[in-house]
Automatic annotation (TrEMBL), chains A, B:
PANTHER family according to UniProt: PHOSPHOESTERASE SAOUHSC_00951-RELATED, PHOSPHOESTERASE YJCG-RELATED
Protein name (Swiss-Prot/TrEMBL): Putative phosphoesterase P9850_08630
Short sequence motif named HXTX 2, residue ranges: 115-118
GO molecular function: hydrolase activity, acting on ester bonds
One protein family per Pfam: 2_5_RNA_ligase2
Cross-referenced InterPro entries: 2H_phosphoesterase_YjcG-like (IPR050580), Cyclic_Pdiesterase (IPR009097), YjcG (IPR022932)
Gene3D superfamilies reported in the protein's UniProt record: Cyclic phosphodiesterase (3.90.1140.10)
The organism's taxonomic lineage, starting at the top: Bacteria, Bacillati, Bacillota, Bacilli, Bacillales
Organism: Anoxybacteroides rupiense
Protein keywords: Hydrolase
HAMAP family for the chain: 2H_phosphoesterase_YjcG
NCBIfam families: PRK13679.1 (NF010223)
Amino acid sequence: MKYGIALFPSKQIQDFANSYRKRYDSHYALIPPHITLKNVFEADDIQAQTIIKTLRQIAAETDVIPLKITKFSSFYPVNNVIYLKVEPNETLQELYKKLHSGVLTDQSDYTFVPHITIGRNLSDAEYFDVFGRLKMQTVHFEETADRFHLLYQLEDGAWTVYETFLLGKDRE
Amino acid sequence: MKYGIALFPSKQIQDFANSYRKRYDSHYALIPPHITLKNVFEADDIQAQTIIKTLRQIAAETDVIPLKITKFSSFYPVNNVIYLKVEPNETLQELYKKLHSGVLTDQSDYTFVPHITIGRNLSDAEYFDVFGRLKMQTVHFEETADRFHLLYQLEDGAWTVYETFLLGKDRE
């Protein structure tokens, strides 16, 4: 089965992101607005059980995560993805690192650029038009994330949440 | 914020349900295939915290749930909803009851008919055509559900999972 790990920001940020995604993001209907913490990976049922135990442990020893969003940005010229930029911070980086170590090690050698995609698969003309307007816009969200989710992918490409992992060393 | 409580069946059942939902269910893009355990309800942040504590307690004291699906059925003539019928059982009924008692009490006086919707808002002609074919079909799924989810609704109607609750008195 195909799994992925994501963090859902608050409803407020999701609603804001969706107001763009519905027009510009072809994945709009497949998953709510999210920060990808680990890209799609394959695991069988046995592997998944090991991974879930590891994720519980990682969550328990990871602090809640400050999320600060200050602007629109894009991966151009690599691709035409437009996103809400999430300011990197140590806790988020540390979590990302743990989600790519031990049983969770994979071939990924990307630098982690935390973001919430709001547009993709745009033509060049549309990309320049849309991003030209968005990059001038002021955006400001600050909140604290206290959970992340393991999801699996259905045949049609949509994602279902399998389990929530609550962050925080001092959780009740 | 608007919340709801649902149970997601396995990927196998979800893929099967989606093969119909993509054609017949106008909510296809809003939520993966699911069994509704508690209909949409309103709660503020403080209420939500109380509810979440209650749900953790309910989950801890509820056994895993056998799910058996044997046929397509429909709510006609009340409405044109077509669904996969989930055989009622005591554990499921008991969970439903707990999710409508105490702080979770609401005005709902429906009988609980556990089901996975695969079609809705069909015209009468389409309903008779589709259901006429589906009711002849043999369906057989049996599995065990070991979790349910609290979800909240975004402005566009889509649902995001907030938290997973693991069932089982004897969980490790």
